[in-house]
Amino acid sequence: MPSGRITEREIVEHRGAVTVVALDEEENVLLVSQFRSAVGEELLELPAGTIEIGEDTRTCALRELQEETGYIAEHLEELYVFFASPGFSDERIWLYLATGLRTAAQGVQTDEISEVIKVPLDKAVEMIRSGEINDGKSILGLTAAQARLAAS
User: Fold this and answer.
1) Residues contacting 78, CB < 8 A, separation 6+
2) For 61-96, how does the pLDDT look when each residue is reduced to its tens digit (9 = 90+)?
């Protein structure tokens, strides 16, 4: 500890991850539904995933978007970089806003995702308030995107 006190901690080391707010021209956002073993529930989230060894964050964001939603983005803007849970992990998450969406020829390329839905951004933020979206990275991503659009 900075004070010199010795303490024992379990720390999870993580390569890092990305989260993508994929927004179409009508301000609809892409959400994915997937089962999360740690909480034993199906969660509605933004597309996201772990950075592969040697992969840069932008490449990872584009890859995860395509694998999980079947969409490709023309533009990618980094909104934030944040710690996911600094009490026990060094994982950083890069949050991107993806625009200029078009469908990829391959479609969804993972069996982790049970459903991809398109929802107006304002409705997605309402879904946070109602508890339908309760994943931290998705809450931050959706509210950050809403604030970014309001400022432009």
Assistant:
1) 57, 58, 94, 95, 96
2) 999 999 999 999 999 999 999 888 878 787 899 999
